[in-house]
Design a protein that fits this description.
With 151 residues, this protein is mostly beta strands. Helix content is 4%, strand content 40%. It is globular and about 45 Å long.
Length: 151
């Protein structure tokens, strides 16, 4: 898809999944799993870490067979962040994905994300998944999540 010189950045992507809350040994997952390839060919998962405990942190892209995450399995992971009570605070991890990376497993074409830590304390985190190359009208979840877009 090409964009005109007058297009604004928010016309080049759509928010397709969100997750927010406490990530600990109980994982924080995105609220839905998105079917990559229906109208978008690439996505980026942005993991935003808050005030984290002295625990290892894993940021993971998952593949599943439904929008609810049925049969979720690891697809792509960041390098595990070493335990630190201060180094991982207020940091961001980004994982990119091309639709071609899902081709081998035709039963699992839905993508979600997860943050988990090595122990039970964890910390407040957010996950945002943005899809590119095929911007369409916003769906109900995106309309509910995006309060305002200013050009």
């Amino acid at each position: 898809m090409s964009y005109s010189q007058n297009s604004v950045p928010s016309e080049r992507f759509e928010v397709v999944a969100l997750g927010q809350g406490t990530a600990s040994s109980t994982p924080l997952d995105t609220s839905v799993f998105y079917k990559l390839g229906d109208k978008n060919r690439r996505l980026v998962a942005i993991f935003i870490l808050g005030n984290m405990a002295n625990e290892t942190i894993d940021c993971i892209l998952l593949k599943a067979s439904t929008t609810t995450g049925t049969g979720a399995a690891s697809l792509k992971t960041s390098t595990q962040l070493a335990a630190s009570a201060t180094v991982n605070d207020k940091k961001i991890v980004i994982i990119n994905l091309e639709s071609s990376e899902l081709l081998a497993d035709t039963a699992k074409q839905f993508v979600g994300a997860r943050i988990t830590t090595g122990a039970g304390t964890g910390g407040i985190c957010s996950i945002i998944i943005l899809a590119f190359d095929g911007r369409q009208a916003m769906d109900a979840e995106e309309i509910a999540a995006v309060l305002e877009t200013i050009n």
